[in-house]
């Protein structure tokens, strides 16, 4: 009985807290409520393993729900999406790279203080509340071992065929908003994690993908511009780059991307593979976590098969999004990353776009054959907050400053590649996560442009609005070659 009362109080309190914070009306169907309460009980059992004190464990689950609700509310406000299982994998990035998130380092008093107080309160409670262990050394040790084993057995059962079938029956396809309203954030995160794990364990069904026939361009440069969209759409001045796009690009337009304000890897993956996020199932929330770059449709893989040198350029740390390993798997021969820009000028906290454009052109000038360069810029990455730029504290003005630099970098690439037989594609990975531009404000699409140099054309630039996966498929035309068609006519591709 000493365990039942605190558990009932914790489950009821957690349900009330989450229901009050959920934008949609929560489901009260018995099956849905049972799954929601079951997720609370699982977390309570997890905390119970560490203390064997019922009230402490149950208070811990209430605290877990409060923290989850607060973070979920912040994420909805900034990015327009609830918490999802892949966010747990990104948590390890926060202490490593706090400057990318609106957080302070763990050693900062604003972070360290509450953490130390929380540990102190738990330690004090630990001394006050007696442990709910059976009497006697043998039964106590048996209980201490049995509960963790039971939780491990439950996790193992979820990975068996009957367990996976039961979870799939409740969660057949990703429907994040509806599932959160039915089952709660914690249950949805756990179930989606299990569903992604089951998908990863299933062998992919493959079919051949023929490389496009014909002659490809000797130089293919694809630049993913961080948080880029035409600043005129946010009330800023028109970039000279945008005027040049409308007069010189072979094709340009608005680009539909998977998210607002974050999750660069979703856009990056779609551009590199030509695959829609929906085709990835539950892995679409973080394609790199799901596949680790093992994508037969990768543009880099196809280019390498066509005889291209493949280079990935990103002026940030190798461990972020596990990019170093993922990009190798995607088919890039060489990675030019943070350490290669050690002496490059910073604009704000990150390497400036001008230095990145200069490095791209150096790679093109030093090539020994056809080359594909895919670059993800960093200068305009958030957060935009006071102190970032000297004399500019307004977030929107900071954004305009950086996006102007991005425009000049693109113009430098256009000038530097115009004498080559080359394709240049530039696009924004997502709209900026600015306080004045939240999800639902205006048109969420970014902008893209596709330049073709070194080939005569009488066609005027045309606007074609695309989804980002379609842009990725369009880029395959630039790397086609007779050599690849003859020697490597097909690559195995999973059905989408």
TrEMBL record:
Compartment(s) of residence: Cell membrane
Keyword Cell membrane listed: yes
Protein name: Sulfatase N-terminal domain-containing protein
Pfam family, any one: Sulfatase
Keywords, comma-separated and alphabetical: Cell membrane, Membrane, Transmembrane, Transmembrane helix
Membrane topology value: Multi-pass membrane protein
Gene3D superfamilies linked to this entry: Alkaline Phosphatase, subunit A (3.40.720.10)
Boundaries of every Sulfatase N-terminal domain copy: 220-434
Record field: transmembrane: 40-71, 111-128, 140-158
UniProt main location, coarse: membrane
Organism: Methylobacterium thuringiense
Keyword Cytoplasm: no
Superkingdom of the source species: Bacteria
């Amino acid at each position: 009985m000493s365990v039942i009362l605190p558990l009932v109080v914790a489950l009821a309190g957690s349900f009330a807290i989450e229901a009050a914070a959920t934008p949609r009306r929560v489901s009260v169907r018995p099956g849905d409520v049972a799954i929601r309460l079951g997720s609370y009980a699982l977390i309570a059992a997890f905390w119970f393993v560490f203390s064997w004190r019922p009230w402490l464990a149950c208070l811990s689950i209430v605290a877990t729900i409060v923290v989850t609700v607060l973070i979920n509310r912040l994420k909805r406000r900034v990015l327009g999406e609830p918490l999802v299982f892949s966010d747990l994998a990104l948590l390890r990035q926060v202490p490593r790279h706090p400057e990318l998130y609106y957080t302070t380092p763990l050693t900062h008093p604003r972070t360290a203080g509450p953490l130390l107080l929380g540990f102190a309160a738990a330690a004090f409670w630990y001394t006050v509340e007696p442990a709910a262990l059976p009497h006697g050394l043998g039964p106590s040790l048996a209980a201490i071992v049995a509960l963790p084993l039971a939780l491990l057995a439950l996790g193992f059962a979820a990975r068996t065929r009957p367990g996976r079938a039961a979870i799939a029956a409740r969660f057949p396809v990703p429907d994040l908003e509806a599932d959160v309203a039915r089952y709660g954030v914690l249950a949805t995160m756990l179930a989606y994690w299990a569903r992604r794990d089951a998908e990863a364990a299933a062998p992919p069904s493959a079919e051949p993908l023929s490389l496009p026939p014909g002659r490809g361009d000797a130089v293919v440069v694809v630049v993913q511009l961080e948080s880029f969209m035409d600043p005129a759409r946010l009330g800023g001045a028109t970039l000279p780059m945008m005027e040049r796009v409308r007069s010189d690009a072979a094709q340009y337009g608005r680009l539909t991307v998977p998210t607002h304000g974050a999750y660069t890897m979703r856009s990056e993956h779609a551009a590199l593979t030509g695959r829609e996020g929906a085709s990835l199932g539950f892995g679409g929330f973080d394609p790199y976590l799901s596949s680790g770059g093992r994508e037969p449709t990768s543009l880099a893989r196809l280019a390498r098969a066509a005889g291209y040198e493949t280079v990935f350029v990103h002026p940030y740390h190798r461990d972020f999004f596990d990019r170093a390993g993922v990009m190798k798997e995607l088919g890039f021969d060489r990675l030019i990353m943070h350490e290669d820009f050690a002496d490059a000028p910073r604009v704000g906290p990150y390497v400036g776009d001008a230095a990145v454009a200069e490095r791209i052109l150096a790679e093109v000038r030093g090539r020994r054959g056809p080359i594909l360069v895919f670059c993800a810029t960093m200068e305009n990455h958030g957060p935009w907050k006071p102190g970032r730029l000297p004399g500019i504290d307004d977030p929107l003005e900071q954004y305009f400053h950086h996006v102007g630099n991005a425009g000049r970098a693109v113009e430098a690439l256009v000038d530097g590649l115009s004498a080559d037989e080359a394709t240049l594609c530039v696009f924004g990975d997502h709209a900026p996560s600015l306080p004045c531009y939240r999800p639902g404000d205006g048109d969420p699409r970014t902008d893209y442009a596709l330049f073709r140099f070194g080939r005569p054309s009488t066609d005027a630039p045309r606007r074609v609005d695309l989804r980002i996966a379609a842009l990725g498929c369009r880029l395959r035309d630039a790397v086609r070659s007779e050599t690849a068609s003859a020697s490597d006519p097909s690559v195995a591709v999973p059905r989408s």
